[in-house]
Amino acid sequence: MNIVITGASSGIGAALASSxxxxxxxxxIARSAKALEELAALHSNxxxxxxxxxxxxxSQFSSCLNSAGWTNVDVLVNNAGLLINKPFLNLTDAxxxxxxxxxxxxxxxxxxxxxxxxxxxxxxxxxxxxxxxxVQGSVKFPGxxxxxxxxxxxxxxxxCLAEEFKEENIRVNTLALGSVQTPMLAKAFPGYxxxxxxxxxxxxxxxxxxxxxxxxxxxxxxxASETP
Length: 228
Ligand SMILES: NC(=O)c1ccc[n+]([C@@H]2O[C@H](COP(=O)([O-])OP(=O)(O)OC[C@H]3O[C@@H](n4cnc5c(N)ncnc54)[C@H](OP(=O)(O)O)[C@@H]3O)[C@@H](O)[C@H]2O)c1
Fold this sequence. Notes:
Layout: E1 2-6, H1 11-20, E2 25-30, H2 33-42, E3 46-50, H3 58-68, E4 75-78, H4 93-118, E5 125-131, H5 145-164, E6 171-177, H6 183-188, H7 198-211, E7 220-223
The structure holds NADP nicotinamide-adenine-dinucleotide phosphate.
The site of NADP nicotinamide-adenine-dinucleotide phosphate (NAP) has 28 residues, from α1, β2, β5 and α6.
């Protein structure tokens, strides 16, 4: 399969790219060129594409796919994310814009850019990576209003797109993850030790991105065994 993974320079995205690269071709996107080059040096199936998903243009994206020799995309994993941990009253407009730009607007933008390539796949799947904090009725934590609400938006986007993309047979799902030990978790819950590391969570996500479209569409699936 041809799989695009955003946020592949760190944490869960890097582990997911490594886990899938033994059997699939991966386009790994993030801003940190060095981290992506290091990942690509370890796996011949990984192509590094250093880019800011908020600023990615259609021509940059298509020339990258062309030079990788891809004519279609089977799976888009919208994993890149940004968390700002601040009490609601201290969050500035710029904070809200940055969080929503990365976690919501860039996701919509990348789905639009990828759509023509997904249409050429036999079993296209879009997987959005959300958080338990973005699930209605889950336990909430102070400081995470911008982050958690932006992740909540992915659930509704997922439901809308599953409907809109039915004719094209493009399946759209969201995984709402619980804690995984990464730099982002350390920002959200300093000092907290999660029971899962990125490689362990990547195993589950790998199965889901390649097989999950046969079982789910328009769904947000919680993947959590602890709180937070
Ligand atoms: N860790 C957890 O406990 C947990 C729980 C629930 C959900 N999640 C979700 O899982 C996903 C991965 O998080 P993580 O914990 O692995 O965090 P992480 O280690 O901080 O990784 C975040 C990734 O997003 C990339 N990124 C951020 N802004 C970007 C931009 N504008 N353009 C391109 N790439 C960008 C970063 O790369 P660059 O900085 O190189 O651009 C990095 O690769 C996120 O969506 C997060 O919300 C994590």
